[in-house]
């Protein structure tokens, strides 16, 4: 089989590479010539564990190609996947400009039966618009070439995207014809060997599934964050509550970890887009509005704890931050809670030095040298009044507390990810703030 994937962003590149891994010939197309040149040299524009060797291997095997020319990569294809960006408009709704441009081009050059698959997260009704756009172009050409559209949302988690693609919990595909269903079944067969189901449905339901899935997960997180904050007030420990409710299989133990709020390219964007769609359709989703509100508030939770600790005065305080990316195993800084925190700390006149295993460059690109960047986690602590843990990278889980103590002015940690044990922090003599748990105060010997 032969497929073309338009858009070499996160979704397009991971999907294309994983499809190539099964023996399919894949051409990934992008208008960005520099990106294509780099990819042809094996240079990957994103950080995703395992992706680079996989891209190189499939290029060497002659199954994975990169091109800036969509026109030439339509005629040999069984399917074209649209995986271009859908950035949020000012009002939060998804901007479909790029999707429609691609559809137009397909309509201009399609020369045989083709399945056109929307893979980007797109508002409900987009596949229909893609279909109408292609049809319009075909009408202009007086052509009656047959084609089908399909919706195949992705559920990839950054940092675990390859595994998610190769071993999916499920594959959701919206189609309107048996012919399209047959093409999609063939394409996904290699991934579905070990009971990973493919769920076929109508197209609007497939489009809705993506938004509903991400919104449900975002809701779980915001709910837990709100519960965590209440736990602090009533003297409960959210870790116990999490274990208590998570063992109920109806609730499940995933995505109920409280923290500093969800970030990334998907949850914030998709929640906003669904809120917008619901409003436009005259059925406002009050729950989701609260999910967003709670999340925005949660991004300041460590800042509020610090303000309370330092009696509202952070001027001149030296603050170390561990973790900048919105979650571990990625350099993605989109909607990262660290950015909100940094901006608030700088506004208060604090001095910030941060360390992240991979996101430093990306952070620097966003906020320049408004903060200091440390080479390692310990360097960030030199003379620090406090340490803030924003992202739960593995290497922060078992640090050398004795070394830390010598480097910092104060044994003071604000942990936004609950990575340390309360008893241990007490024994080590740290003042330790976390999320939804008791505050550990360093015992001062009179
Ligand atoms: C998400 C979806 O999981 C994926 O299916 C979809 O295709 C794209 O969006 P991603 O954004 O890569 O993936 O990250 P994910 O691991 O889902 O985490 C999202 C955010 O939620 C992160 O900021 C993370 O820190 C936060 N989170 C996650 C929590 O705060 N608590 C949790 O229990 C889980």
TrEMBL record:
InterPro entries reported in the protein's UniProt record: 6-PGluconate_DH-like_C_sf, NAD(P)-bd_dom_sf, UDP-Glc/GDP-Man, UDP-Glc/GDP-Man_DH_C, UDP-Glc/GDP-Man_DH_C_sf, UDP-Glc/GDP-Man_DH_dimer, UDP-Glc/GDP-Man_DH_N, UDPglc_DH_bac
Source organism of this protein record: Labilibaculum filiforme
GO biological process: polysaccharide biosynthetic process; UDP-glucuronate biosynthetic process
Similarity section: Belongs to the UDP-glucose/GDP-mannose dehydrogenase family.
EC class name: oxidoreductase
Cross-referenced PANTHER family: UDP-GLUCOSE 6-DEHYDROGENASE TUAD
The protein's Enzyme Commission number: 1.1.1.22
Short name of any one Pfam family annotated for the protein: UDPG_MGDP_dh_C
Amino-acid positions noted as binding substrate in the UniProt annotation, renumbered to this chain: 155-158, 210, 255-259, 263, 327
Keywords: NAD, Oxidoreductase
Catalytic residues as annotated in Swiss-Prot or TrEMBL: 266
Binding site for NAD(+): 30, 35, 86, 121, 158, 269, 334
Catalysed conversion reaction: UDP-alpha-D-glucose + 2 NAD(+) + H2O = UDP-alpha-D-glucuronate + 2 NADH + 3 H(+)
Domain UDP-glucose/GDP-mannose dehydrogenase C-terminal: residue ranges: 320-422
Pathway(s) served: Nucleotide-sugar biosynthesis; UDP-alpha-D-glucuronate biosynthesis; UDP-alpha-D-glucuronate from UDP-alpha-D-glucose: step 1/1
The name this protein goes by in its record: UDP-glucose 6-dehydrogenase
